[in-house]
Amino acid sequence: MKDRRMVRTWAEVNLDALAHNYRLLRGLAQKDKFLGLVKANAYGHGAVPIARKLQQLGADMLAVACLDEAIQLREGGIAIPILCLGQTPPELASELLEYSITQTVGDLETGEALSAAAATARKTLNIHVKVDTGMGRLGFLWLDENSSPTNGEDWAFRQTDLYKLCCLPNLHIEGMFTHFANADGDEAYTMTQLSRFLDLRERMERWNVCPEICHCAASAAVLNYDQTYMNMIRPGIALYGYVPDPSVKNPGLKPVMTVKSRIAVVRDLPAGAKISYGCTATLERDSRIAVLPMGYGDGLPRALSNQLEVLLGDKLCPVLGRICMDMCMVDVTDAPGVKAGDEAEIYGPGLTDWAAELAGTISYELLCQLTPRLPRIYLEGGTVIL
Questions:
Q1: How far, in Å, CA of 278 to CA of 209, rounded?
Q2: Do the strands 61-64 and 33-37 form a parallel or antiparallel pair, or are they unpaired?
Q3: CA dihedral 113, 117, 120, 121 (to 10 degrees)
Q4: Of 2, 22, 33, 39, which is the active-site residue?
Q5: Torsions phi, psi of 209, nearest 5?
Q6: pLDDT at position 155, please?
Q7: Does the CA dihedral 205-208-212-218 come out positive or negative?
Q8: What is the SS3 string spanning 271-319?
Q9: Full-prediction pTM beyond 0.90?
Q10: What is the Rg, in whole angstroms, of the alpha carbon atoms belonging to the chain?
Q11: 237: number of Cβ within 10 Å
Q12: 22, 164, 240, 277: which one is catalytic?
């Protein structure tokens, strides 16, 4: 009997491809540390198995979005440092300490609360200071001396906030970082952000605050601008085999995930038959229609209705009608011999980026929104290992 996880719809995660991407990216920054992004369930690939493989490969650090994701990794046996990129409520500081999680701090109020909590526990919390050099999201806001005051707070006040953070007890400023807003589209703006970051780092050094780790380069910058590497890179989508934008040259990354669905039934329907909800597709000829047990309940966007094509053997076959919660219909008239039980490839090499373009989104979103209903099957050396 075949693996029952593969009787409906599933995702195959190729750990050899992950290792290939890791080594390729690490080779671009040989002397620097490597932080692997495993937030959002490792971009849909499964956080714990991916983290275990990255730990085995020699990654120096992993990054998550929130404390719960970090705890999941620790309970899954991950021992290497973990950086929480998002905000953690100060009342959960004891869990940051218990699980040895490094916390991002981008404002004085958060820093003060975490410092107090760590002092109460008589422990020291590792933090990375985040600087907002132009993303407009989180971090100590960079302003030059000539910038206009904002909400009555001038440059000196902003610097005082950062200086006060650096003086707080029971916090170890291990790292400092920023995030580029447009490293895949605007070199001038990226270099401006880099210059701002370097300026702030220099100011901190004048306060005798010298973080051991500085990092700026996510996937786009890793692939485009080696001057942004600092002493650690933090690739995300590139680890999983995709460039962040078609304008970024792919150096040979391999997609790690392939999503497959097994045909439930093949039916012969006459010309004029309507397909799926809303009758948005009408057959123009007598046709053979395959029903795939994959829908938006599995993470297949409804926006791909009447647009997506799936791979059956060597034939691309169009999805007809609206994608349902649990199923979609595919025209296999021009793929003779297709039958119930055959595998269809939905996402994978050459397919995921195309599907994202059709849906008006990016590969990140398609991968991240794959739901837990899809079993993740892990392959290494061509063999299922998990």
A1: 63
A2: parallel
A3: -160
A4: 39
A5: -110, 110
A6: 54
A7: negative
A8: CCCEECHHHCEECCCCEEEEEECCCCCCCCCHHHCCCCEEEECCEEEEE
A9: yes
A10: 24
A11: 21
A12: 277
Q: Which amino acid is at 364?
A: Y
Structure tokens given for 320:
């007809």
* 361 Cβ contact list (under 8 Å, min separation 6): 301, 303
Task: Reply yes or no on whether 339 is catalytic.
Answer: no
pLDDT digits (tens, 9 = 90+) for 341-382: 999 999 999 999 999 999 999 999 999 999 999 999 999 999
- The pLDDT value recorded for residue 327 is 98
What is the C-alpha separation between 129 and 139, in angstroms, rounded? 8
CA distances from 349 to 135, 255, 260, 263 (A): 31, 6, 12, 20
3-class SS at 29? Answer: coil
Q: Contact at 8 Å (CB) between 267 and 357?
A: no
Residue pair 111/168 in contact (Cβ under 8 Å)? The answer is yes
Distance CA 191, CA 334 (A): 51
Residues recorded for the chain: 386
164 is catalytic: no
Helices (H) and strands (E) in the chain, counts: 11, 21
Helix (H, G, I), strand (E, B) or coil at 164: helix
